[in-house]
Write a structure and sequence with these properties.
- The chain has one domain: 2-Layer Sandwich (Creatine Kinase, Chain A, domain 2).
- The longest helix is centred in the N-terminal third of the chain and has 23 residues.
- Helix 9 crosses helix 13, helix 11 packs antiparallel against helix 13 and helix 14 packs across helix 15.
- The chain is α+β, with helices and mostly antiparallel strands.
Length: about 400
């Protein structure tokens, strides 16, 4: 498992701090894209108030994943607090950020963002205020990669039901359970082939993928005026699962960043163990249009979404089935983390919990203070590696 986490930089009052370049320079003496330390790396994202934390190499099991990435959180959080009075904040979106409170990385690799800016309006939440948890899963042979891709496509519409953590943006509660993905799926509407329906289309070979997915959006980008900087690049693909041929992995982008590393590990165990079971069971691949309809329903209603999946009338039923498959195929280490996913199924995803806590707190104070109180607790959850229920 190869994780990539995205966290906001905030002050004590939850104000976003667009200082990622300053933090990197403060840590190592010069502005770089990434700072590599033993086991983990931290560095820039497009947004100046967001910092990425990722593994230097894939983890063989969940315990070393948790220990290494939590060391990364602790190391970075301590430096931020001592030098800038700042904190790291998880969850899928910053709840209070206004778009003029952050900026775009202007240093090395900024040419990429300038190219995007020629075609897309980057001044929107779908670019400046989204934080996902990416999970890289390796494959060896082409046939394995194609199978994993198609199984993940069949599974990914339902992942937000347990991983959504973005009920709030610009200081207000909104109707959708997963606002991050709702913004994400619309942020490149000028060239819609880049993200497609977010739910990936099934493929039969790498050649088909390179031609019908990468080739198509590259031709569309070229027609829109893009330069070779972003043409025929696999990482431009904005579907919820993409091939990273450079690392022989599939990158799952469907999950919102959670409140702590332990919760990210639990989701990773859920995905990996469920895939293990699905591979051995040869499940039916549902029609793509059905999956897209279910995905859009899940963004709105989460676990309570009405779906067309044969494993039940709601996303909760489908996720419970996936959980049962995962539990039956999990290693002993994975079984230490899966109860966290089970509890999310029973008590609500993090988005549900945040909404409930904010509404309860808002009965005694104004909404902004209620949001600040709840998300300040999430900061502590990240530092202490403690799930929030």
């Amino acid at each position: 498992m190869g994780p990539e986490h995205e966290f906001s930089l905030v002050d004590d009052a939850l104000k976003p701090l667009p200082i990622a370049d300053q933090v990197i320079k403060g840590y190592c003496g010069k502005i770089m894209n990434f700072v590599e330390l033993p086991g983990f790396t931290f560095g820039k994202e497009m947004q100046l108030h967001v910092m990425e934390l990722k593994a230097n190499a894939p983890f063989q099991g969940p315990r070393v994943f948790e220990e290494t990435m939590q060391k990364g959180v602790t190391t970075l959080a301590a430096f931020l607090k001592q030098r800038y009075g700042a904190h790291l904040l998880g969850a899928g979106m910053h709840p209070l950020l206004k778009l003029d409170e952050t900026g775009i990385w202007t240093h090395r690799h900024s040419k990429i963002y300038r190219e995007y800016g020629k075609i897309f309006n980057l001044q929107q939440h779908g670019w400046l205020n989204i934080q996902s948890f990416h999970l890289n899963l390796p494959y060896q042979k082409e046939a394995d990669g194609v199978l994993l891709h198609n199984l993940l496509a069949n599974m990914c519409p339902y992942l937000p039901a347990v991983s959504a953590s973005s009920p709030i943006y610009e200081g207000a509660l909104h109707g959708k359970v997963d606002n991050r993905l709702a913004f994400y799926k619309a942020n490149q509407q000028e060239v819609p082939s880049i993200s497609g329906d977010v739910v990936p289309e099934y493929i039969s070979s790498f050649d088909m993928y390179r031609k019908d997915v990468i080739g198509r959006y590259s031709r569309d980008l070229a027609a829109a005026g893009a330069s070779e900087t972003i043409l025929f690049k696999e990482w431009v693909n904005s579907r919820g699962v993409i091939f990273r041929f450079d690392r022989s992995a599939l990158e799952v982008r469907m999950m919102d960043e959670q409140e702590c590393v332990k919760s990210d590990v639990a989701l990773s165990c859920f995905v990996r163990a469920a895939l293990r079971g699905l591979i051995s069971g040869a499940p039916e691949l549902l029609p793509h249009n059905l999956l897209v309809c279910d995905f859009n329903a899940v963004l709105d209603k989460g676990l309570d979404a009405e779906v067309q999946n044969p494993y039940g009338p709601t996303a909760r039923h489908v996720c419970q089935h996936l959980f049962d498959v995962a539990w039956q195929n999990a290693t002993d280490e994975e079984k230490n983390y899966l109860p966290l996913v089970k509890r999310r199924l029973e008590e609500g995803n993090l988005s549900d919990v945040i909404r409930q806590k904010v509404l309860k707190r808002a009965q005694r104070t104004d909404l902004t203070e209620a949001i600040t109180d709840v998300y300040s607790t999430l900061i502590k959850c990240l530092e202490a590696n403690k799930p929030y229920f």
